[in-house]
Amino acid sequence: MKSKGFGLISLIITIAIIALLVFGFSKFHGTDKNQIQAGQDAIDRAKNAAAQEKAANQDLQNQIQQPDLAPDVYHSIQDRAKSLK
Questions:
Q1: Secondary structure of the chain: what % helix, strand, coil (to 5)?
Q2: What is the DSSP letter of 4?
Q3: ∠ CA 35-49-51 to the nearest 5 degrees?
Q4: What residue segments make up the domains of the chain, in order of their start?
Q5: Does the predicted model carry a pTM greater than 0.70?
Q6: What is the pLDDT along the chain (85 residues), one digit of tens a residue?
Q7: What is the largest CA-CA distance in the chain?
Q8: What is the C-alpha separation between 16 and 67, in angstroms, rounded?
Q9: How distant is the alpha carbon of residue 53 from its chain centre?
Q10: Closest by alpha carbon to 63, among 49, 79, 47, 50?
């Protein structure tokens, strides 16, 4: 008796090979570029956060050095400065 077409085992093996090719290719295709971009984006965000912190600290220093501040404003600035540390 001669069978026509694929048998069950050969069909499963063929589907498994195709699945490995599709998912393996999609997993490894372009990941280096995406990881490099993600790392560069993280570096840029860290630089922006550092610049914002520096600007906030400079603003606090400028406010603290003003001699005509009311005592309650001065203490609220001091509390804000302590919370940033």
A1: 80, 0, 20
A2: -
A3: 125
A4: 9-84
A5: no
A6: 566 666 788 888 999 999 888 877 766 665 556 778 888 888 999 999 999 999 888 887 877 776 665 666 666 766 777 776 5
A7: 104
A8: 77
A9: 19
A10: 79
